[in-house]
Amino acid sequence: MVRKLLFGGVALAPLTIALHELAHLSDVTVFTLSALSLVPLAWLIGEATEHAAEHTGPGIGGFLNATFGNAPELIIALFAVHEGLTEVVRGSLTGSVVGNLLLVLGFSLVAGGKGEIDRWSSFMSFAAIGIATALFLVPAVPSWDGDPERRSLAELSVPVSIALLAIYIVSTTYALRRHRVMHIASDEAIEGWSFRGSLAVLGGATVLTAFVAETLVGSLETFAEKAGLTDFFVAAVIVAIVGNAAEHGGAVIVAYRGKIKLAAEIALASAAQVAVFLIPAVALLSWLIEPLALGFRQVELAALAGSLLFTALILAGGRSSRWRGFALLAAYAGVAYAFYEAGERSVG
Length: 348
Prior knowledge:
Blueprint: H1 2-9, H2 12-22, H3 27-56, H4 58-82, H5 86-112, E1 115-116, H6 119-143, H7 151-182, H8 188-191, H9 195-218, H10 220-227, H11 231-243, H12 245-256, H13 260-285, H14 298-314, E2 319-320, H15 322-342
Antiparallel strand pairs: 1-2
């Protein structure tokens, strides 16, 4: 019954897009409909990922989910760059990394309970995020004095972005080869969706998610203004959660079904991919629109470093449990409060 409702709910996405374009609904209504539309889409992406993982193994399955799930974030970020919302772009991207490490992984561990996690794969994700956080300091520290949008900082962000993309290509190629060698397809995979069918569903659901997420973000400023929230908080928490809806739903669903290793791969692979691929990709592609400087605020970098260290400690033993999940969720609540208290950026 629930599966039928979720399948039927996918139709809400194109309906929401059509109503937004033709009926001129209020921003609050658009926000509500868009948020509801993302729920069945997130479930569908999780369903397709689980079937694809039966053919590829959890490592490559997590990579596929991270790739398709992060596509809407890239589109949202470029739309925001076009609108000149640079603080929204930076806040949503760092908030995405933190959200995957603490919120998505936390809910997954709570839903899945006890299980094993691939320590090697986790270490690779942690290392990638750690390197990215260190490199972000190069353009970020100078941005703390003067205009954070000055062109010299955008130029300084280019070599940092290129270095991160090189790291992403090398680490991803090695990781995928390792997972391919380790994986042996199960008999159950033959009875499920075909690999091509799973990829087709992933692609279609991702396209719909991108359109819905963009529609939702377009109504967020009015919604946030009525709620009395700052643009930075909206970007780092609300936009980040919306952009990660696919990973949120996908990871929690597969964790609830007992596939803890795949759920952890989804959350950690997504966090690493945002740090070493999505952020530098947005910085480089922004030059086609308006150069974007990776001038992250102190609170953002502190949140990245703190979330990384805390999650690494929680998963050091390679085991999952519900109490570990609750600890990660509590940490995310603390970070969200810090983002709320940070307020708007003051230009020195």
